[in-house]
């Protein structure tokens, strides 16, 4: 009897076996419909094998579906990713099939000539229509426009049977990119980097690169040239460009379109489902060469993936923490390894993990030394707030105010950066000191003036600002504490009433379209002072932007998180790197109460190496990544007792292991979210310990009750 192991989207660690009916052929990667309880469910055949004399009573595969077979290496990748992240392989496979679950775009209605039929009355308008149409099929409105007639003329011809309406299935055409469409003249560093990558692509085989260059050094231009050379050598090559944020895709798509004379495919949650289906089908059929997308684009069924680029590879947004927990950058490297492709991790501020890999010689290190052309890096100054603290209830120091005034007078732009949404991060009662928190959640309510509401940034809960204190009942005693971007903008408007100001945060630009509009008006010089959260810190090029002010440079340094220093360094380096991208020199001013902090000293000195060296030494002393490995187990439930008990059970079941420690259980950093109690256990292991095997053995010993959710986070981003 033939048996197929089928991956179906259920939270279980194995595939399910089904009998292959007599006369059917099933091949690894085939999509099949299989019975599961009373219904049929879509799955992917992972393995097909022969059993002899088995007495197992297996259900049979219902149907081998007509959908494209998942390519071998895509399935290899899915299975590897599931093992690495300890995720259910069937759910990983379902991620790879997501595009197929979307509806097909509606067929397009077009008109065409019915052979041998002529109009009874050939008026001038009718003749114009038939001439414009020729032997083609055209959408009616287009035809009316081309022929310069009203739609009634076309309708008349259809009624008379001279034209007929046909439905044409909308098959997306992805024009092949032309590598020679608009090449850039690269500087020697860029050219060398592009050649190195392109040679690796052409030679074949897994080759990872770190493309390391300051903001504006031309990394994008360099990897696009590598893509062009790869396409010249192999016109069927597929190239995936991963970006950390949807807001960045538009600019990159425009650059690719300008460079190659054809638009790439776009893939992220903001793309309409019918379009996603078209992209999925084009990718698996090899009809599409360049994909620009978010981390989920890693799961597309590439027919011939030759090059993966992870732009802004240090960015924490590549880590997916809901649902399947994985790091997009790490999986990108794995995908390239499995495909035998090249992978380029690009950044001005690479993660310590990536730098470590480059130092060890595992990644080839390509460096772009200077900014392209005349642009120079901004001069970075620290403003010591202890010298002349700003007045109470204001957030901009005298020095920063003066700098903004000078910039404004020169007709240039300023970006004020504060990584805090809303008006004020905390609302407090002056009478009793009570701080307003979200219901059933461990987080402050943030005041938003634009919407007039108090918002929990964790759960999205919101409510109008109350008149009375919910704790003591006093009236009109609730006051905002501290600044958010809206409050800084208010101060700026008071100081510079003539300036055009705007706020860029996920509240003011909730979607890709509004982000594009705001970015465009900034690029067009319609905004003088932009107050922004990290949403605007990365990627964008604003030629007239010459001043970046960081309102609170100490913000990220306060947390005790593993990556607090690294993340702050990266964020501030990216933010300050926005200034002076074109022919005008820029400067950046950082307001701080702790100018002696090593992160700020390194930033001010423009000395990344000094920062990296100091931070690496600390990580090495504590055997933390990249010198060791981590994993987190997070338990959550509405039933606090059940969480406690499961946490204790886990703590008692820890297998013996060397060079590995388990910490906890302790309250998770967000101990209460939407009424769910959260506990966490942390694992630290030396690099050569098989962390996944340890976790699997451990989890096999404990029964987690259905009321408790267990999330395994291998290589957590925060710790
Ligand atoms: P990065 O990706 O390193 O931040 P970009 O590739 O975005 O840098 O380049 C920064 C700016 O310099 C862009 O406006 C880009 O068009 C321009 N640029 C980079 N390299 C070249 C080049 N070789 N010729 C012309 N312009 C370039």
Automatic annotation (TrEMBL):
It comes from the Bacteria. The keyword Zinc applies. Component of the replication restart primosome. Keywords: ATP-binding, DNA replication, DNA-binding, Helicase, Hydrolase, Isomerase, Metal-binding, Nucleotide-binding, Primosome, Zinc. Residues 464-622 form the Helicase C-terminal domain. Initiates the restart of stalled replication forks, which reloads the replicative helicase on sites other than the origin of replication. Recognizes and binds to abandoned replication forks and remodels them to uncover a helicase loading site. Promotes assembly of the primosome at these replication forks. This is Replication restart protein PriA. The gene is priA. It is an enzyme of class 5 (isomerase). Its cofactor is Zn(2+). It comes from Brevundimonas faecalis. Belongs to the helicase family. PriA subfamily.
């Amino acid at each position: 009897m033939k048996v197929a192991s089928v991956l179906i989207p259920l939270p279980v660690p194995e595939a399910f076996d089904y009998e292959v009916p007599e006369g059917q052929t099933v091949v690894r990667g085939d999509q099949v419909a299989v019975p599961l309880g009373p219904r049929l469910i879509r799955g992917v055949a992972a393995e097909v094998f022969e059993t002899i004399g088995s007495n197992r009573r297996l259900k049979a595969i219902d149907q081998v579906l007509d959908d494209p077979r998942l390519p071998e290496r895509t399935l290899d990748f899915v299975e590897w990713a599931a093992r690495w992240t300890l995720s259910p392989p069937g759910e990983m496979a379902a991620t790879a099939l997501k595009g197929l679950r979307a509806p097909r775009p509606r067929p397009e209605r077009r008109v065409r000539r019915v052979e041998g039929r002529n109009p009874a009355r050939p008026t001038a308008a009718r003749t114009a229509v038939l001439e414009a149409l020729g032997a083609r099929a055209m959408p009616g409105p287009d035809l009316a426009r081309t022929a310069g007639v009203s739609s009634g003329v076309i309708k008349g011809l259809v009624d008379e049977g001279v034209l007929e309406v046909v439905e044409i299935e909308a098959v997306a055409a992805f024009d092949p990119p032309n590598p020679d469409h608009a090449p850039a003249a690269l500087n020697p560093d860029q050219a060398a980097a592009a050649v190195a990558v392109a040679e690796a692509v052409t030679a074949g085989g897994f080759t990872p690169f770190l493309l390391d260059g300051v903001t504006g050094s031309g990394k994008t231009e360099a990897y696009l040239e590598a893509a062009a050379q790869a396409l010249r050598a192999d016109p069927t090559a597929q190239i995936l460009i991963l970006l950390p944020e949807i807001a960045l895709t538009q600019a990159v798509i425009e650059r690719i379109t300008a460079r190659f004379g054809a638009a790439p495919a776009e893939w992220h949650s903001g793309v309409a489902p019918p379009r996603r289906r078209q992209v999925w089908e084009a990718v698996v059929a090899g009809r599409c060469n360049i994909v620009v997308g978010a981390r989920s684009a890693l799961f597309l069924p590439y027919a011939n993936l030759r090059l993966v680029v992870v732009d802004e590879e240090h960015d924490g947004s590549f880590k997916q923490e809901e649902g399947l927990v994985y790091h997009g950058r790490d999986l990108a490297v794995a995908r390239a390894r499995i495909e035998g492709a090249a992978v380029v991790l690009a950044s001005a501020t690479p993660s310590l993990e990536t730098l470590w890999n480059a130092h060890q010689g595992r990644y080839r290190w390509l460096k772009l030394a200077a900014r392209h052309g005349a642009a120079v890096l901004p001069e970075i100054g620290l403003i010591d707030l202890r010298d002349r603290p700003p007045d109470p209830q204001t957030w901009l120091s005298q020095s920063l105010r003066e700098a903004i005034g000078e910039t404004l007078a020169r007709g240039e732009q300023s970006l004020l950066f504060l990584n805090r949404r809303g008006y004020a991060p905390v609302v407090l009662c002056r009478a009793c000191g009570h701080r307003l928190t979200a219901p059933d959640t461990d987080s402050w309510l943030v005041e938003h003036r634009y919407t007039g509401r108090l918002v929990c940034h964790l759960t999205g809960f919101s409510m109008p600002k109350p008149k009375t204190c919910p704790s003591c009942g006093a009236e009109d005693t609730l006051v905002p504490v501290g600044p958010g971007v809206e409050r800084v903008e208010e101060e700026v408007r008071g100081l510079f009433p003539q300036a055009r100001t705007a706020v860029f945060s996920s509240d003011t630009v909730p979607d890709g379209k509004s982000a594009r509009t705001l970015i465009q008006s900034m690029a067009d010089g319609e905004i003088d002072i932009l107050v922004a959260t990290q949403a605007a810190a990365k990627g964008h090029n604003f030629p007239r932007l010459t001043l970046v002010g960081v309102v609170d440079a100490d913000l990220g340094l306060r947390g005790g998180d593993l990556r607090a220093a690294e993340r702050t360094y990266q964020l501030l380096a990216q933010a300050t790197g926005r200034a002076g991208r074109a022919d005008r020199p820029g400067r950046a001013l950082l307001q701080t109460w702790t100018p002696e902090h090593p992160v700020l000293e390194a930033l001010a000195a423009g000395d990344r190496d000094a920062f990296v060296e100091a931070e690496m030494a600390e990580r090495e002393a504590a055997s933390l990544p990249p010198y060791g490995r981590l994993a987190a187990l997070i338990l959550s439930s509405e039933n606090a007792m059940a969480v406690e008990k499961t946490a204790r059970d886990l703590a008692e079941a820890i297998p013996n292991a060397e060079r590995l420690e388990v910490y906890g259980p302790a309250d998770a950093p967000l101990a209460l979210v939407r009424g769910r109690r959260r506990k966490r256990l942390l694992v630290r292991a030396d690099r050569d310990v098989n962390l996944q095997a340890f976790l699997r053995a451990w989890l096999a010993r404990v029964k987690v009750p259905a009321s408790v959710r267990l999330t395994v986070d291998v290589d957590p981003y925060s710790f």
